[in-house]
């Protein structure tokens, strides 16, 4: 029988975990959320939410994962035999499949744009060229399904290689490249004439945007970008050796996540302001506004290719963590079945994602609660799946794990331990419930 795989190094784990967190949430969703919610105020609230609420829950997932030393379902059974806490793992299994099913659709869009950028077929010929291009891409049934399939194939290929030979190896070269690409793009964006207006938008607060809704959106964004709530970090931490310092790892992942999100803003907003575009373009910012921005600068084609390579890397590092959650639960302790399981579950997720892929074309008239299939899948997971998963993970860490167990795992001062326990027992659950209620209210308002 094959042995359970492990990460080969702490840096490999941190990069894989950071890669899981740093995906479309940081590079695609964060900029347009900041752009439509006042820039700097949203950024400040996002940072506070990440450090005060997201980080403690991330650490809770790390603790549960390493203590369980198994997939999320088996790990909860090991830690709390005979109790229904293992349902948290099954929840992660289900919601990971749904998230990856529509996430891979966006991955397919990125591949389509990357191919167009490499073949120099993205030169705007009219004012509406990039908007028309985006609408054409997402509504073309063959293009979106082929793109989605290609993206899923890349994800399966990496996950089927195992932890050390697949996920850790891929993360070790994709994450440093992602950081280098970001620096190159940020420097180019910041050297444009008028770029400082974009910097001010990110860092000089306009307190008129400081509202209850903005605070809740920032908290929801913190959960989304840290990948907490679907047991992804529980799964990754289960491959850790006992001596790894979990607190340092959680801090590293959180600060990398914040740093990349802000760097995404520094890539996008200086260029957007310098060239006279609007920062509140919404989800189309990366696919409609940015290509138009790059077209107007020297070596724009090169930077456009670089941007979509970067976006592809970030999306892949998140997608492999979601497929790993599903595969690890699916194979239980039968590790020799990893490759087969990766292909079977990956293909199943591809099939589940086809309606989302077609929801802007052939199925554009099909709606669930007034939303397209794609938008409903996004809303359902981000407003219900992630908050509920994060809530029960927080409660499990705060009320089921004993204080002495936690002290042995964290090896921190009593003050830090008590502060962390207060957050996961009271502050985090209250914040999560508020976000959950906000999601429910959106259905009826």
Characterize the structure shown.
This protein has one domain: Up-down Bundle (Amino acid/polyamine transporter I), CATH 1.20.1740. The radius of gyration is 21 Å and the shape is globular. The chain contains 18 helices and two strands. The protein has a two-stranded antiparallel sheet. Helix 5 packs across helix 7, helix 8 packs parallel to helix 12 (246-274) and helix 14 packs across helix 15 (338-357). A hairpin with a 2-residue loop joins strand 1 and strand 2 (371-372). It has 445 residues and is mainly alpha-helical.
Which features characterize this protein?
globular; 445 residues; mainly alpha; two-stranded antiparallel ribbon; single chain; Amino acid/polyamine transporter I
Strand order of the largest sheet: 1-2
Give the assembly state of these chains.
Answer: single chain
Q: Which shape, going by the Cα principal axes?
A: globular
CATH class: Mainly Alpha
| SSE pattern | HHHHHHHHHHHHHHHEEHHH
Largest sheet: 2 strands, antiparallel
Q: Would you give the CATH topology?
A: Amino acid/polyamine transporter I
The rounded Rg comes to 21 Å
- How many helical stretches? 18
Counting structural domains, the number is: 1
| Structure classification | mainly alpha
CATH architecture assignment: Up-down Bundle
Number of strands: 2
Distance between the first and last residues' Cα: 55 Å
Structure summarized in a few sentences:
It is built from 18 helices and two strands. The protein has 445 residues and is an all-alpha fold.
Write the layout of secondary structure elements.
Layout: H1 10-21, H2 24-36, H3 40-68, H4 72-79, H5 87-118, H6 129-139, H7 141-159, H8 163-190, H9 196-203, H10 212-226, H11 232-237, H12 246-274, H13 289-295, H14 300-331, H15 338-357, E1 367-368, E2 371-372, H16 373-400, H17 403-410, H18 414-442
Antiparallel strand pairs: 1-2
């Amino acid at each position: 029988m094959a042995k359970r795989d492990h990460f080969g190094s702490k840096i490999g784990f941190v990069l894989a975990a950071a890669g899981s967190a740093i995906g479309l949430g940081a590079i695609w969703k964060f900029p347009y959320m900041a752009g439509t919610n006042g820039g700097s105020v949203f950024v400040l609230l996002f940072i506070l939410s990440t450090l005060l609420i997201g980080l403690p829950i991330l650490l809770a997932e790390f603790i549960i994962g390493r203590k369980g030393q198994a997939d999320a379902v088996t790990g909860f059974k090991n830690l709390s035999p005979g109790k229904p806490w293992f349902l948290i793992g099954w929840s992660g299994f289900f919601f990971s499949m749904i998230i990856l099913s529509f996430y891979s659709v966006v991955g397919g869009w990125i591949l389509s744009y990357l191919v167009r950028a490499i073949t120099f077929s993205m030169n705007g010929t009219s004012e509406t060229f990039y908007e028309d291009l985006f609408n054409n891409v997402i509504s073309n049934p063959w293009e979106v399904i082929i793109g989605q399939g290609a993206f899923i194939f890349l994800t399966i290929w990496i996950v089927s290689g195992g932890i050390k030979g697949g996920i850790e190896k891929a993360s070790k070269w994709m994450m440093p490249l992602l950081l280098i690409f970001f620096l190159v793009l940020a420097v180019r964006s910041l050297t444009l004439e008028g770029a400082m207006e974009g910097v001010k938008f990110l860092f000089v607060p306009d307190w008129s945007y400081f509202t209850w809704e903005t605070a809740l959106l920032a908290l929801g964004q913190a959960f989304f970008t840290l990948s907490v709530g679907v047991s992804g970090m529980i799964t990754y931490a289960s491959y850790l050796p006992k001596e790894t310092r979990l607190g340092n790892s959680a801090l590293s992942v959180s600060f990398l996540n914040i740093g990349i999100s802000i760097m995404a803003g520094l890539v996008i907003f200086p260029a957007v302001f310098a060239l006279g575009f609007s920062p509140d373009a919404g989800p189309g910012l990366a696919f409609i506004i940015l290509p138009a921005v790059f077209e107007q600068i020297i070596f724009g084609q090169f930077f456009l290719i670089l941007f979509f390579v970067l976006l592809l890397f970030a999306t892949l590092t998140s997608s492999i963590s979601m497929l790993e959650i599903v595969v690890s639960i699916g194979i239980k302790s039968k590790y020799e079945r990893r490759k087969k399981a990766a292909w079977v579950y990956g293909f199943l997720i591809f099939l589940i994602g086809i309606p989302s892929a077609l929801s802007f074309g052939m199925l554009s008239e099909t709606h669930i609660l007034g939303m397209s299939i794609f938008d409903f899948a996004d809303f359902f997971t981000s407003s219900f799946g992630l908050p509920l998963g994060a809530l029960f993970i927080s409660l499990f860490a705060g009320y089921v794990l004993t204080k002495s167990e936690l002290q042995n795992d964290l090896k921190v001062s009593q003050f830090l331990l008590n502060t962390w326990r207060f957050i996961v027992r009271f502050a985090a659950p209250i914040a999560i419930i508020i976000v959950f209620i906000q999601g429910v209210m959106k259905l009826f308002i």
